[in-house]
Specification:
The longest helix has 16 residues. The chain starts with a strand and ends with a helix. The mean pLDDT is about 90. The protein is of the alpha/beta class and about 230 residues long. The chain has 2 domains: about 140 residues, 3-Layer(aba) Sandwich (Rossmann fold); about 70 residues, no CATH class. Helix content is about 40%, strand content about 25%. Strands 6-7-8-3-9-10 form a 6-stranded mixed β-sheet, sandwiched between helices.
């Protein structure tokens, strides 16, 4: 479904992403784990068109994305939930969700989607008229995921969904991610909480200083001594 082949990303003279290749098959949850500053966010941004790789290629559903604008990538069925939620603070919860559907014209289906988001996230329904900026961190994360779902994506890119949340909310967010996958959504997950990420993933890649240094079955990586030592506190 998604194929990333030897991409290189630069910030000026800084070589941030070095020949990164990865693949996500339809129906999978694939995690990209690594320390702060490893290049995880830059990799996601290169995939969703927010950054343009200097070399290498990204293809989605067989289509080359290198010359496609990020808003057209969204129309193709790939939605990106950015690090730090990035909700529209001065707009209501409902307005934020409606913004997620801005590429769509099918009003009846949009309304159906909105109902499904409210069923999945009852707290958003309770706060649908509330300004997004007044929500708690966990509620904002739910809103950011709900907003992405409103574009009716085939694939979801999630960047650090558990960041800054209490252990209880982390558990809830990961449960939601698992449910979304079980309902048919393919997911590429960037996460510093390696243990949680690996526990729900099919496969994973480990990124260090812009390079993929390990890849494989998520359960096997959980037992890998180097991964345990660096990311799992053992």
């Amino acid at each position: 479904m998604l194929k990333v082949d030897n991409i290189n990303v630069f910030y000026g003279v800084i070589h941030a992403i070095k020949n990164v290749s990865l693949e996500v098959k339809e129906g999978e949850i694939v995690s990209l784990i690594g320390a702060n500053g490893a290049g995880k966010t830059s990799t996601l941004q290169a995939i969703s068109g927010m950054l343009k790789p200097k070399s290498g290629s990204v293809s989605f559903m067989g289509e080359d994305l290198n010359k496609v604008e990020s808003y057209d990538i969204l129309k193709m069925g790939m939605a990106h939930v950015p690090e730090g939620r990035r909700v529209f603070a001065g707009m209501s919860v409902k307005e934020n969700l409606e913004m997620g559907a801005y590429t769509r014209k099918d009003q009846n289906e949009i309304n159906d989607n909105l109902e499904r988001v409210f069923m999945r996230f009852p707290r958003l329904l309770e706060r649908k008229k509330q300004l997004a900026g007044t929500l708690s961190g966990g509620e904002q994360q739910m809103l950011a995921i709900g907003r992405a779902i409103m574009s009716n994506p085939k694939m979801l890119l999630l960047d650090e969904p558990s960041m800054g949340l209490s252990p209880l909310l982390v558990k809830e967010i990961f449960s939601i991610i698992k449910e979304l996958n079980e309902s048919g959504m393919t997911i590429l997950l960037v996460e510093q909480n390696a243990k949680k990420a690996l526990s729900i993933s099919n496969r994973a890649y480990v990124l260090e200083t812009g390079k993929i240094v390990l890849e494989g079955d998520a359960k096997e990586l959980m037992e890998n001594d180097a991964v345990k030592k660096a990311y799992l506190g053992g």
